[in-house]
Amino acid sequence: MDTKSDEDMQHSPNSPNQADFEINNFDEKLQAAGDLRIVLPGDFIGEGFIAGHGTYESKKDSKIYANMAGVVHQIDQVICVRPLRQGYRPDIGDVVVGRIVQVDQKRWIVDVNSYQHAILNLTSINLPGGVQRRRSEEDQLNMRSFFKEGDIISAEVMQVGSSDGRIMLQARNLKYGKLLNGFMVKADSNFIRRMKNHIIDFFADRESFQVGTIIGTNGYIWIYSPTENQLNKKEDVKAPVLKSVTRQERDCMAVLRNAIKCLEREQLPIFKETIDLVLAKYYELKDSQRIGPAAMLRRDDQSEEESTSSKLCEHAKALIQKEISANVKQFDIQAMMDQMQEQDFIEFGRQ
């Protein structure tokens, strides 16, 4: 570290405080430049801030330390640590897939893979046929004719309580509701990327049919064989019905499921583009090495890097690396430090 000259020392009556201020300021500029500061429990974060989530203030020296492993974030004067991986925390507008666990009075309790079950009120769903009217006592008595325990549904997060964290859902849009003709896959919600559209069709350019997916931001993913109205992007106002699913469709549904699990195994974001790249690589290996859906998750004996899932995710990894390279800003650390040393930190702090 460069030592300050006598002229610089005259600007500060207390040089240690000035040095601490420089360190904190330097960390802020690094974070603003795009560099992530990762800390472990007990690591020193800074002082002069308000301790937020994931931090604590020492009673001895009033310095702030981390009490969990994660990335340091600063919002105004509040400094906090966000964990690298955490359970699903819903935001308003999230598309989720859930399972009905209880039918209560005028509402359903839904498992959405979060810190608590969500609530779907009777007034927050579409009645059969898309009829718009007030809910009656007869509707309350027939709630299990809409959704019953064990049903899989899709919905949207309508509200998250600020005090108790209560999760409220709505399924008024006709694209939400009871899910049939498919199966649910559970993935780590940390890998699910929020998109404009979470209802996506695959295999349209490779097969004579399509396989639909609802990628819930909560980590629950529904893979299904779409109906004719769903293929034509029409809202189905009728009650959902079961349909026959062919062997070819089941095979493609298994391939899609394993493609998602490959991305999760390789710790890559799960969204339309990465899934498409894994599927393209699968068909490439299928023609050359004659692999099937079951071989997609197979691990070789030599090393994990040579596993089939790693080969399938090669193009997806390249895409994510390209995104990271484009988003990370290039900066000169030494030039930044020189610029900081030229500033009068004490006068800046007094302002």
Average pLDDT number? 80
- State the secondary-structure class: alpha+beta
Count of discrete alpha- or pi-helical segments spanning 4 or more residues? 11
**Major sheet attributes:** 5 strands, mixed, barrel
Helix content: 25-40%
Order of helices and strands: HHEEEEEEEEEEHHEEEEEEEHHHHHHH
- Tell me how many strands there are: 17
Describe what this molecule looks like in 3D:
This protein is an alpha+beta fold. Among the domains are: 6-84, RNA polymerase II/Efflux pump adaptor protein, barrel-sandwich hybrid domain (OB fold (Dihydrolipoamide Acetyltransferase, E2P)); 247-327, no CATH class. The protein is 30% helix and 24% strand. The strands form four sheets. The protein has a five-stranded mixed barrel with strand order 8-9-10-12-11. The two termini are 27 Å apart.
Summarize this, please?
With 351 residues, the chain is an alpha+beta fold.
Features:
OB fold (Dihydrolipoamide Acetyltransferase, E2P), 351 residues, disordered C terminus, alpha+beta, five-stranded mixed β-barrel, 17 strands
Q: Which secondary structure elements does this structure contain, and how are they paired or packed?
A:
Blueprint: H1 6-9, H2 15-32, E1 38-39, E2 44-47, E3 50-51, E4 55-57, E5 63-66, E6 70-75, E7 78-83, E8 95-104, E9 107-111, E10 118-125, H3 137-141, H4 143-146, E11 152-160, E12 167-171, E13 177-178, E14 182-186, E15 199-202, E16 211-215, E17 220-224, H5 228-231, H6 247-265, H7 272-289, H8 308-312, H9 314-327, H10 333-341, H11 345-350
Parallel strand pairs: 3-7, 10-12
Antiparallel strand pairs: 1-6, 2-5, 4-5, 6-7, 8-9, 8-11, 9-10, 11-12, 11-13, 14-17, 15-16, 16-17
Helix pairs in contact: 2-10, 6-7, 7-9
